[in-house]
Write a structure and sequence with these properties.
Catalyzes the ADP transfer from ATP to D-glycero-beta-D-manno-heptose 1-phosphate, yielding ADP-D-glycero-beta-D-manno-heptose. This protein is an alpha/beta fold. It contains 17 helices and 19 strands. Helices cover 38% and strands 25% of the residues. Helix 2 packs across helix 8, helix 6 crosses helix 7 and helix 8 runs antiparallel to helix 9.
Length: 497
């Protein structure tokens, strides 16, 4: 599957996030003078912003991606806790709130002058809590785990993910076939033993193994493999992704401990790295739950991290932003001959393009199909369609959608090939992939002025009925007889017609 197709599946994903929730408080301003009272700069406060931090930022990122998310956290009975509770109420389907006597909600205040991070002020108190001590809490937690497609542990060593809690969660997850992804802290990786994937940065990897890995060194990749091998041997985790800051990411699997995949960073201009690791964890979890292999999930996470470091504050990345970044990256990396990739856009982008075209007085046309093997019949339809519209959008079934409709032997060509071929046609302005069995949800989003298709009457054409109900037009195109993908496949196989 194309990387962008996994993003379309994010709304079907259910993620459980367990970890140390925080309030991130940003105070923005400028510095123009030195204090007359002491040789220190005077910060002139111009505004502030509060948002979820720590594990809360993982929840916020999962929600921004379009996933369904549940959470488990410890909060204090204070103003910061009320803000976190209310915000989680808007983002998460369900949150299990726990309390530890005398423990305040963790709050981190960052002072930002322009794009410069001046100082951070922490208000916190470490605590100890047993997530499984209370039978009712244990039952709720196990229910949330059973509902999840993937479990994310966001550990900041504040107390929620104490060693026994981690071990119990990972053990229960393995018993029920659930993947656990960990954003670790500290040097005690025994608590993460058996996890599906652990995501340390270079400093954390060094703390856990005692091996210093320097990106500028000639033996850098060998040292990474040696450190990974040590963790695999001691703690039996299945996969490691090491984030390398401006040097990108590295992936090692316990199945192939001598092989390292290294991809470079996507960041172009770094404004703030706050929460970039949370974004990375969220995208990894969402992609794996959507069916991606670890390598593809890492590529998506790397692209998302490149977006978020260009934003100020603890930021999130939406599915539309991620799709747009993928499109720009693929187009630019393959040279002028591959600029057609820019015509392959997301549902959200298609909605915006159609809206802008209508505002400019243009007529938006739409058709859809599998277009497995492009032939003259398809070209005839496209040429006819262009006579009815100024902007022509083609909806294309994903590989998974084609298989559900036509069986496991189809499609003959994958969605990447099919979408590129369609996008290369001059009469096609944009191509949008959809994973549903019908194009109706896509049509409802785009709301074309005219929808066009061969051989469909309105009584069995819900997309056409919808367009007409909105004041548009449904056009049955003239069919070119003797042309079909099925007959082409039969001829190629030498089967009788």
């Amino acid at each position: 599957m194309m990387l962008s197709s996994y993003i379309d599946l994010f709304p079907q994903v259910n993620i459980l996030c367990i970890g140390d929730m925080m309030l991130d408080h940003f105070v923005y301003g400028d510095i123009n003078r030195i204090s007359p009272e002491a040789p220190v700069p005077v910060f002139n406060s111009l505004g502030e912003k509060k948002m979820l931090g720590g594990a809360g930022n993982v929840v916020a990122n999962c929600a921004a991606l379009g996933c369904r998310v549940n959470a488990v956290c410890v909060l204090g009975e204070d103003e910061a806790g009320r803000f976190v509770r209310e915000t989680l109420g808007r983002l998460a389907d369900r949150t299990l709130f726990l309390h530890s006597r005398g423990v305040p909600t963790i709050e981190k205040t960052r002072i930002i002058a322009g794009n410069n991070h001046i100082i951070r002020i922490d208000s916190e108190k470490k605590f100890s809590i047993d997530l499984f001590a209370d039978p009712q809490t244990e039952q709720t937690l196990e229910t949330l785990m059973a509902q999840a497609d993937v479990i994310l542990l966001s550990d900041y060593l504040k107390g929620v993910l104490a060693p026994e809690n981690c071990r119990r969660i990972i053990s229960l997850a393995r018993e029920n076939g659930k993947k656990v992804l960990v954003d670790p802290k500290g040097n005690d990786y025994a608590r993460y033993a058996g996890a599906f994937l652990v995501k340390p940065n270079l400093k954390e990897l060094s703390l856990a193994t005692g091996i210093t890995c320097r990106p500028e060194a000639e033996d850098f990749e060998d040292e990474l493999l040696r450190a990974a091998g040590m963790l695999f041997s001691k703690f039996h985790m299945e996969n490691l992704i090491i984030t390398l800051s401006e040097h990108g990411m590295a992936f090692v699997s316990s199945a192939k401990p001598d092989t390292l995949l290294h991809i470079s960073t996507e960041g172009k201009e770094v404004c703030d790295v706050s929460g970039a690791g949370d974004t990375c964890l969220s995208v990894l979890g969402a992609a794996l739950a959507a069916g991606a292999e670890v390598k593809d999930a890492m590529k998506l996470a790397n692209t998302a991290a490149g977006i978020v470091v260009g934003k100020v504050g603890t930021a999130t990345v939406t599915g539309a932003e991620l799709k747009s970044a993928l499109s720009r990256r693929e187009s630019s990396s393959n040279g002028p001959a591959w600029k057609v990739k820019r015509k392959i856009i997301s549902r959200e982008e298609a909605q915006a393009v159609a809206s802008e075209a209508r505002a400019a007085g243009k007529k938006v046309g739409f058709t859809n199909g599998c277009f497995d093997l492009l032939h003259y019949g398809h070209l005839s339809s496209f040429m006819q369609a262009r006579e009815y519209c100024d902007l022509f959008i083609v909806g294309l079934n994903t590989d998974a959608s084609v298989r559900r409709l036509k069986g496991e032997s189809r499609p003959v060509q994958d969605e990447k090939s099919r979408s590129l071929l369609l996008a290369s046609l001059e009469m096609v302005d944009f191509v949008v992939l959809f994973n549903e069995d019908t194009a109706l949800p896509l049509v409802e989003a785009i709301r074309p002025d005219v929808i066009l298709k061969e051989g469909y009457s309105l009584d069995r054409w819900p997309e056409g009925r919808f367009v007409e109900s909105c004041g548009g037009k449904a056009v049955a195109l003239e069919r070119m007889e003797g042309y079909s993908t099925t007959s082409l496949v039969s001829r190629i196989k030498g089967q009788p017609q």
